[in-house]
Specification:
The chain is mainly β and 191 residues long. The chain has no helices and 19 strands. The chain has a nine-stranded mixed β-sheet with strand order 11-12-13-14-15-16-17-18-19, with no helix packed on it. It has a four-stranded mixed β-sheet with strand order 4-5-6-7, with no helix packed on it. The N and C termini lie far apart (88 Å).
Length: 191
């Protein structure tokens, strides 16, 4: 583009308007915006110069606020962050709905430390602790190999406490025709 303002040894920085839009282009090195005092960098839109983004001298970014109180502060009627995975075209939403923190996705919600899964909320409404495939409403497992202890809350309100071992004892509660029952047993059956 030959229109506009060019700066630098090889005209590397361009400021121009093409009749519809304005551009800042940089052909070489980094493009750095610096405010060399303790003031902010402010981005505005519309003819009324409405502020939309502010970067404070402390490095905090405000979207919809001129006084961000966190590294990223979003102020809106319905604030939402959308994370989109381009590998499988799925989205995760984190937003504030009436003061409630809402997380939504098309798959499971997983809470983990850097290397260990702690809790899984499955897309089918099941909660797993110690298991990444919860089979009941609440599925808690601990241990490993044939020494796994399981506590489950089943869909009909039944409770199970079992141990995955050849002669392991178990406790199960049942509700039949409004009458509760507790079954104690082991691999040979109820006792």
């Amino acid at each position: 583009n030959t229109n506009g303002f060019y700066v630098g040894n090889s005209d590397d920085l361009h400021l121009f308007h093409n009749g519809a839009d304005s551009y800042i282009e940089n052909d070489t090195g980094n493009l750095t915006f610096t405010n060399k005092n303790t003031n902010n960098i402010i981005f505005k839109t519309t003819s009324s110069e409405t502020e939309v983004v502010r970067i404070t001298s402390a490095g905090k970014v405000g979207i919809g606020t001129n006084n961000p109180s966190a590294p990223l502060h979003i102020h809106d009627d319905s604030p939402k962050i959308i994370l989109k995975d381009t590998d499988n075209n799925s989205e995760v939403y984190i937003h504030n709905v009436g003061g409630a923190a809402v997380y939504s996705s098309i798959g499971d919600a997983i809470f983990q430390t850097p290397s260990t899964e702690i809790i899984r909320l499955s897309a089918t409404g099941r909660v797993g602790i110690g298991t990444d495939i919860p089979t009941d409403k609440l599925d808690i497992q601990s241990g490993s190999s044939d020494e796994v202890t399981k506590f489950k809350v089943k869909t009909a309100g039944q409770l199970e406490l079992t141990r995955n071992h050849s002669d392991a004892p178990y406790i199960k509660t049942f509700m039949s025709s409004g009458n509760p029952a507790i079954h104690l047993g082991d691999s040979s059956g109820d006792n």
